[in-house]
Amino acid sequence: MKTKLILCTMLALGLAGLGFTTPAAVAQTPEESAPLPMAVFDFQTTDRSLEKKGGEVAALLNARLSVSPDVFLVERQEIDKILGEQEAGLSGAISADTAAKVGALVGAKVIVTGRVFESGGKVYVVAKIMSTETGRVYGELTTAKDFNTIDPAVEELAGKIAQLTKKQAVNLVAKVEDSAARIDRLKKIVEGKTLPAVYVSVVEQHLARPVIDPAVQTEMMIVLKEIGFPVLTSEEAARRTDVVVISGEAFSELGMRRGNLVSCRARVEIQVKQADGKKFLHIDRQTDVAIDIAEHIAAKKALENAALKLLDRIVPELVK
Q: Which of 74, 187, 259, 319 lies 20 to 30 angstroms, CA to CA, from 80?
């Protein structure tokens, strides 16, 4: 039900055209060695008689892209499982504005969709390559004589998309901020402010199994301490009433495997309140994804990424 509500909201935003003008992206520095998690959705068709062709083109494109070393594809079966067959069929509604929401659901940094149509005795396949992080959109085009000869055209399109995503990776993936820069940025937010004592407690699970070293809790405690907050133990927090408690739950799970690489997705839900429980300062949640050669390391990375994004929103609330 929740997924359907999200998708209905996205549809309400309206269908986007195939124009490729987008907001300017800030300078990016993604890890060049990491393949981009990408999802291919069904292509739209303008003629009802070609309705099935959009799905066929997407399936062919997915198969062609699956052999590219620069792309980590979200399997179409996984998309169907996450969104449901009916919702996945509505993928034509995905635009630069809604790509981030869809990407968060399926764990993709790049979404590929587009349009298939006949004109002047030719078949045109127009692809939109959309970043779920920066808002950038690129376009690629191939043509075929007819649908019986569309396979070579889709193969050519897959090559163009793989080349484009590799070349434009800095514009498709949000800049990864290093630890020192993050600490400096957050220190400026709290500079000159009275910082409350903080206690952090986040229960964490991976595949329904509890973990001994919760990544979210650890990451939050490290960053908060480094920017100047007094971070308390459970015993210290129990003896005080002027404490801000950051609590919540987090879980991670296996996304998919491809060769030696594995992806994991994570979700963190947080509540920030006074120790006496009389006042909520902040309530938030964050979903993220990460890739590594080891499942549990990928899971930890996804959880850490989510924790850091949450801290960007929590820290300003702590010093209001």
A: 259
